[in-house]
Write a structure and sequence with these properties.
By secondary structure, this protein is α+β, with helices and mostly antiparallel strands. The protein contains 8 helices and 14 strands.
Length: about 400
């Protein structure tokens, strides 16, 4: 078979072009740091890459959500700590204010401190986040949640709680409503509220109130609140909320009244007509409780007012401890959520590394493929150079060289 000169040139050029195309392909793969340059190279691998990339992006969004949720919860925890410290400081000052050895100047100093602590706590409740939104206003984040009017401090936010998705099937709360933290605080202790009538003239001051028989109190509570009215010589009658008598007794056994599964203790002696009240816990804001403490410590000094002050401060102490417990409960909840976020973040980071590695293998961006492509580049470069040199040598051949 004879090969014409044109066929030789055409065949040689096609061979060189083929080698150069292969060299260019390898060069582009190395430049892109991946073997798969287009879906046409490997449709199955390209489809797998799209699916893995979507999963990776979703995982990265979860990691971002977790980071943002962690930041919000950590800031919230700091404010909860500050609020708890403020309430504890107020409790300490109230206990000090209830001491009998204080003079009027000392009491006025304590009152000034309490007013400052009350305002400080309200400042915490009305705090803003880094975006200028009120942190404890629920969904009404553009208005201060707590405002003071003629009737006291009122909550004007809502009960909304913002949430964040930290996993494909997990959503957690990242905020608290101000009403939950500072407003809707149960009065009394363990679901029981005890108080003394401010008009009492005797020396009886409350010292304790406890549920001793849970079953009996559960049955009796719906008819509360109950009133204990004292007569002469420590005799007393107990009436339900409708004024119906439900019990009677006397204080011959000591300074304790026990009825309906409840035990109420006091110091001193009640006078004829004095009253104590007990019933299921209601709710009251921590600001109202502090106002109650300030009002009690503002009473003028006298034997009667001393008893009224002591009874009012007993209620204040119990209610402030309830407010402190609510803040501690919220802090515990924040801690649990932060632990969950940290676990989710650790798992998400591992998952991200796994997905990134899997994508690298699918598209040929792993170290083994890059090493292979580097060797292929050297081989293709050598092949192209050899083809070009061979073509140049053969192209110079002529029969005249041999004549």
């Amino acid at each position: 078979m004879r090969v014409s000169t044109n066929q030789f040139y055409d065949g040689s050029i096609r061979a060189i072009n083929t080698q150069q195309s292969a060299l260019l392909q390898v060069s582009q793969q190395l430049s892109a740091q991946r073997k798969l340059l287009s879906p046409a190279d490997d449709p199955v691998a390209a489809s797998r890459e799209v699916a893995l990339d979507a999963t990776l992006k979703a995982n990265e969004q979860m990691l971002k959500n977790q980071s943002e949720a962690k930041s919000v919860l950590e800031a919230t925890e700091n404010y909860l700590v500050e609020a708890g410290n403020t309430v504890q400081a107020a409790l300490a000052r109230i206990v000090q204010g209830g001491g009998g050895a204080l003079n009027e100047e000392d009491r006025q100093s304590i009152l000034a401190d309490l007013r400052g602590l009350r305002d400080q706590l309200m400042g915490i409740a009305d705090t803003r986040d880094e975006n200028g939104n009120y942190l404890f206003a629920g969904y009404k984040r553009d208005h201060p949640p707590f405002v003071r009017n003629a009737g006291g401090v009122v909550y004007q936010g809502d009960s909304g709680v913002r949430q964040s998705q930290i996993g494909p099937q997990r959503v957690i709360d990242v905020s608290f409503s101000g009403n939950y933290l500072f407003g809707d605080i149960p009065t009394g202790a363990d679901g029981l509220a005890v108080s003394a009538d401010g008009a009492n003239t005797g020396s009886a001051t409350l010292t304790s109130g406890a549920i001793t028989d849970r079953q009996a109190w559960t049955a009796a509570a719906p008819l509360g609140p109950y009133t204990i009215e004292f007569g002469v010589d420590g005799a007393y009658t107990v009436m339900d909320r409708d004024g119906a008598g439900v019990g009677a007794g006397d204080l011959a056994g000591g300074q304790v009244v026990e009825i309906a599964g409840v035990q109420i203790g006091f110091a001193g002696r009640p006078a004829d007509g004095d009253r104590l009240t007990f019933g299921p816990a209601a709710s009251q804001s921590v600001f109202d409780t502090l106002d109650q403490a300030i009002a009690a410590l503002s009473l003028p000094a006298s034997a009667t007012e001393s008893t009224a002050r002591a009874n009012a401060l007993y209620e204040v102490n119990v209610n402030l401890n309830g407010a402190l417990n609510r803040l501690l409960e919220a802090r515990s909840s924040v801690g649990s959520r932060l632990n969950e976020i940290e676990s989710a973040t650790s798992a998400g980071e591992v998952r991200s590394d796994q997905l990134t590695g899997e994508i690298s293998q699918v598209v040929g961006a792993d170290i083994d493929t890059m090493t292979e492509l580097t060797g292929e580049l050297a081989k293709r470069t050598y092949t192209v150079q050899a083809a070009q040199q061979t073509y140049a040598q053969i192209a110079r051949l002529s029969i005249f060289n041999f004549l």
